[in-house]
Amino acid sequence: MEVRASVTVVCMAFCLAAPVLAQDPAPKAAVPASDIDLLNQAPNTGQTFVRQLSGAVPEDVVAAQRSTEHYGRLVVTEAPQALSLADCIDLALQNNTDLRIQRLGPVAAANQVRTTRAIFDPMLFASTSYDRTTSVNPIQTNAEVFGPTSNILFKQNLTTDVGLRKMLLSGGQLSLAWQNSRIKTDPSIAAELVPQYVTTLGLSLNQPLLRDFGWRYSLLFVQVAQNLEQEAYFQYQAAIATVIATVERAYWAFVLAIENVQVQEDGLALSKELLRQNESKFKVGTLPQTALLEAKSEVARRESTLIRARNFRNNARDNLRAIINYPKPEAGPLAMVEPRDKPVVAPYQIDLEHSLQTALEQRPELIAARLEINGKGLQRKAAENQLLPRLNLVGSVGTNGLSGSAAGPAIQFPFGPGQVVEIAPNPFAMGGYGHALEMLHDGRFYSYSAGAVVEIPLTNAKAKADYAAANIGFEQSRLALQKLEEGVTLEIKQAVSNLETDLRSIDATRLARELAEENLRNQQARYDVGLVTTKDLLDFQDRLTQARAAEVQALTAYNSDLAELRRVEGSLLSARNVVVERASPESAPWWARF
Fold first, then answer.
1. pLDDT tens figures, 344-376
2. Cα–Cα distance for residue pair 468/461, rounded to 1 Å
3. Confidence bin at 237 (pLDDT 50/70/90)
4. Which of 530, 395, 377, 373 is nearest to 467 (CA)?
């Protein structure tokens, strides 16, 4: 049976310090413009050509390899800078290296959307070629009819084609091509126009009707990429929440270490004062040497404990500095940090059911996992389309033109008495290249074709295997969401339990510290009149030191566990007034809309 706790906590300050959550300015976590610029930082054609000619590694790569500006920055160079928890969070959002890496996730996902849309980009193509062939003339003709005969035949052809090709949202391939040829050869009955100009202008379409057909299929991969872009955004949100929670834990661990040093220093001061009293009493002969040695031993033990506490404090400071990663000055050692906030018990209503419901709606990891399931479903739908046979409608329509110059005089063939057949170039085709172009829009010289292409795989093994892989991926994502939901439920349950324990621990440790202070005062009074031994008094001093340390630990543990509860329920960003800005999705260019 689930435990339901509804506890409203009143504010209880550890010392006179403002609550950490008091109207902090709202830091923003956005993908910087410099990162977004990576989408458009492609070199132009000239730069690319020059770089390809060079065998050297690019300068920025060499500079990145040799850079050591971020190495060894935890050295101590200046006095500590007092920072609140909100200051540390703000600086970490700007400088934390892990978060800077995560910021590139949405950028990479946006680039993937561009990649999937690129299949709809129109492609301008052109080609040109020149060829010449000479060969032995296999025919001997009558010179009186055809003119002198040459032993060498030649043919040369200059071809230039240009066109535009585009993938349609229907899945079809539309192509507009303009083809031009200039043919020059030896004059003959088949070559009365020398040179001869041939030009055609044609429009062709290859439209799938089953496999790869339709707007829905063509845009499936764009939808998958857009889904990944949303998923990357929520993963970035989760990374921000993780960094904030890490900063809070490190901040309060540093505060605990500082307070522990103070507690140990106070304990050392008590033991030194007792040693001073024992030395005075020993000198006048009212205290045995054993008591003096006990006091000296306790001072030495506390000094050792203080040394370790100071080392722990320094390590805790360096850990917080490393997480914030704030260089001061720029590219120099990391700034020294001194906590300005003190641990408090901030008001928070602990409600397990409410936390579970909040996480279900707001936890970015859960939202990202649901988006992943949607994306896997789209991929499975795309794979399912490939199970269909291929049936493509193909067709073309175009116009053509022909022109050229007369190769020579008309050729006459005698066909009996008084009959002569004359072969001469068509006067309508006589002209230069411009005349051939005029024929393209004449309307009488055209061509068209229509047909269909059918492909039916006998086993379709690859398509079935791809569908099975997509189906397995979908099932893996579904189970991953299930596992994540189970993990989130456990995290929330433990976080709620830890926070409830912290509250009870705070009350108990405060009472224990107050009683330890009262007991020490009483024992000190009894020690002054000789009713207790030095060892007894040292024990009560040690109990007070432990009680003070336990109280500080309980307070800092509450603040750390509160941040963890907010993280696992997905409310940490709003609690810390962090606004995660999201770049507006790029709209499709006009040519990708048809």
1. 888 888 899 999 999 999 999 999 999 999 999
2. 10
3. very high
4. 377
Task: With CA atoms as reference, report the closest residue to 573 among 240, 143, 290.
Answer: 240
Can the peptide bond before residue 19 be classed as cis, meaning omega within 30 degrees of 0? no
**Containing H/E element for 189?**
none
Strand partners, 408: none
Question: What DSSP letter does each residue of 19-31 carry, written as one string?
Answer: -TTSS----EE--
167 Cβ neighbours under 8 A, 6+ residues apart: 119, 120, 173, 174, 218
In a 3-state reduction of DSSP, which class is residue 586? coil
- E strands present in 502-585: 579-580
Distance of alpha carbon 178 from alpha carbon 513, whole angstroms = 93
| Distance (Å, whole) CA 92 – CA 96 | 5
Total residues belonging to the chain: 594
The one-character DSSP state at 442 is T
Per-residue tokens: 571 = 């409310």
Residues sharing a CB contact under 8 Å with residue 482, sequence separation 6 or more, in sequence order:
none
In three-state form (DSSP H/G/I as H, E/B as E, the rest C), the secondary structure along 409-427 is CCEEEECCCCCEEEECCCH
Nearest alpha carbon to residue 580 among 251, 230, 323, 112: 230
CA distance 442 to 463: 48
* Sequence-separated (6 or more) residues with CB below 8 Å from residue 129: 157, 158, 159
CA–CA gap between residue 429 and residue 442 (Å, rounded): 13
Cα 192 to Cα 360, 403, 407, 533: the distances in Å are 83, 11, 5, 133
> What's the token pair of residue 204?
């062709």
CA nearest neighbour of 175 among 106, 235, 125, 248: 125
Q: Is the dihedral of CA 422, 425, 428, 431 positive or negative?
A: negative
Query: Locate tokens 């360096």: which residue?
Result: 318
389 with 456: CB under 8 angstroms?
Answer: yes
Residue type (1 letter), 407: A
The pLDDT tens digits for 447-457 are 999 999 999 98
Rg (CA), the chain: 43
pTM recorded for the entire structure: 0.82
Asked whether the CA dihedral 100, 103, 107, 113 is positive or negative, the reply is positive
> At residue 519, what is the residue type?
N
How far is Cα 271 from Cα 290, in angstroms, rounded to an integer?
15
Taking phi over 0 as left and psi of -120 to 50 as alpha, with beta for the rest, 89 belongs to alpha
In this model, does residue 158 exceed pLDDT 90? yes
